[in-house]
Structures are given as C-alpha cells and as structure tokens.
Amino acid sequence: MVINMKLIYAIVNNDDSHPVSNALTQKGFAVTKLASTGGFLMSGNTTFLVCSDDDKVDEIIEIIKDHSRKRNQFVPSASSYGAGSYTSFPVEVSVGGATVFVTDIERFEKV
Ligand code: 2BA
C-alpha cells in the first residue's frame, strides 16, 4: 500500500519552541517536541516531529518559518600565538530560523 505521508523534522531555537508549537496545534497538526542539542554551539534547541499528509507539508513549513526568528549568537573561539600561548575571542554566528528536513513515511500506524 502506498501512503502519501511525510515526516518533517524541524530544529528551532528554544525561545521559538512555544510559538511554533502553539501555532501548529491551533491549526490542528499533531506534533512531538524533542529536547535536542546543537553540535556546534552545544546549546539546547527543540526538534519538532510532525507527520502529515503530503499536501500539508508546505503549510506546516510556512507556519514554522513564520514563528522562527534568526538570531546572532556568540561562540568562544581560540587562536594560538606561538608555543603555549592561546587567546580566546568570541565569534558571531547566525542561528536559525528553523532547520527543516522532510522524509517519506513508509508506514503509519496507531496500534
Ligand atoms: P548548532 O549545531 O549549535 O549550530 C548553530 C549555528 O552555528 C548554525 O545555525 C550555524 O550558523 C553555525 N554552525 C553550525 N555548524 C557550524 C560549523 N561547523 N562551522 C561554522 N558554523 C557552524 P543553523 O544552521 O541555523 O543551525 C541551527 C541548529 O540546527 C544547529 O545547531 C543544529 O542543531 C541544527 N542543524 C543545522 N544544520 C544541520 C544539519 N545539516 N544536520 C543536522 N542538524 C543541523
């Protein structure tokens, strides 16, 4: 049996987690939130799992986009100035809005 469903993973800033979750649930979409950690900044973010019909994917991504802001964050970085001499300085990185992946669902059941 071919099913036309997708699984959307959306990684958002923790500060956007409530607005994103509220907007999706108000529109009737089922969501699961996972506490996650970014590998680069090593700080907490939120990963949403949303399984939906194929034709709803664009609407869901639009909702996530509308409620996820872009931010600049500073991350410590280190440089070496000769043997044993290091200094640390902050580097600014742009984070977000949301990082979104969409995959096919082979089978969907609630048992
Ligand atoms: P983080 O890994 O903590 O990355 C935070 C931000 O740092 C990224 O923002 C990006 O601007 C920068 N960054 C990440 N890796 C970098 C690197 N190797 N060198 C220089 N700068 C780097 P976003 O791209 O908006 O990503 C936000 C979060 O989304 C990431 O947090 C990570 O948890 C997730 N993410 C982004 N791209 C991903 C991917 N291709 N696969 C899995 N997770 C991803």
Estimated helix fraction: 10-25%
Rg computed from alpha carbons, rounded to a whole number of angstroms: 18 Å
Q: What's the arrangement of strands in the largest beta sheet?
A: 2-3-1-6
Q: Poorly predicted ranges (pLDDT <50, ≥5 residues)? A: none
- How far is the first residue's CA from the last residue's CA? 18 Å
Listing every helix as H and every strand as E from the N terminus to the C terminus, the arrangement reads EHEEHEEE
- 3D shape: elongated
Largest sheet: 4 strands, antiparallel
Describe the overall structure.
The chain is of the alpha+beta class and 111 residues long. The protein contains 2 helices and 6 strands. A hairpin with a 5-residue loop joins strand 4 and strand 5. The longest helix is centred in the N-terminal third of the chain and has 10 residues. The two termini are 18 Å apart. The mean pLDDT is 92. Ligand 2BA binds next to strand 5.
Keyword list:
binds ligand 2BA; about 20% helix; alpha+beta; 6 strands; two-stranded antiparallel ribbon; about 110 residues
List the helices and strands and how they pair.
Elements: E1 5-13, H1 17-26, E2 32-37, E3 44-53, H2 57-66, E4 71-80, E5 86-95, E6 99-104
Antiparallel strand pairs: 1-3, 1-6, 2-3, 4-5
The structure holds ligand 2BA.
